[in-house]
Amino acid sequence: MIEVKNLYKSFEGKEVLKNINAVFENGKTNLIIGQSGSGKTVLVKNLVGLLEPTQGEVLYDGRNFVKMTKKEKVLMRREMGMIFQSAALFDSLSVLENVMFPLDMFSDMNLRDRTKRAMECLERVNLLGAENKFPAEISGGMQKRVAIARAIVLNPKYLFCDEPNSGLDPKTSLVIDELLSGITHDFGITTIINTHDMNSVMGIGENIIFIYNGTKEWQGTSADVMSSTNKKLNELVFASDLFKKVKEVEEHISHQ
Length: 256
Fold this sequence. Notes:
Layout: E1 2-11, E2 14-24, E3 29-33, H1 40-48, E4 55-60, E5 63-64, H2 70-77, E6 80-83, H3 95-106, H4 111-124, H5 140-152, E7 158-162, H6 170-187, E8 190-194, H7 198-204, E9 207-212, E10 215-220, H8 222-226, H9 231-237, H10 241-254
Parallel strand pairs: 3-8, 3-9, 6-7, 7-8
Antiparallel strand pairs: 1-2, 1-4, 4-5, 9-10
Helix pairs in contact: 3-4, 3-5, 4-5, 5-6, 6-7
């Protein structure tokens, strides 16, 4: 479990995050949503240590990440997997070599065991047969799946995903969502997903945190979204006609 307590972040005197209190639950897909510029990316960067809070605590299973020494933070980051908005693969490395990269850096395993582990992760994301291809030779959706395999190769406790569906078509986005949800539940990972994708919110949002102008405006599940009376949340989630109609049907059924 990751817990954020009274977190503030300022840049040159301007508050970007204000008194954020939130819990990201083990074994669940925790989604952070909000308009562009709301502060959700800054929040994630504070969680993983790319930024340091101006004030407040970030607790990993009770361990205060903010107060850790540099060495302790390095060890802590080995418990984290990260998937970036762009897949951030190494163009000069094969798919297999990309997945093996964290093992080469941080593992004491021999080459045979590292290769076996990487292949297990490629199998988990349905990419067996693509291990000898290079990133330029595979689709954007496949690249994201390689990034997922690389992120889980060290058996992380915590998985951070920054806009994992960015640039993908709806069908491929659904595949990525199902993969992330399955991995989260199979391995009991605390998964945090920063997303604009409202299909993800409704499809895999087990714990949703809505950030608005640097504050936590709302927290709940995808089911709670449907019955929410929060005007700001509704404006974000139900901006499309499809989701408006779904909500109208839900409300009609509930009133019968």
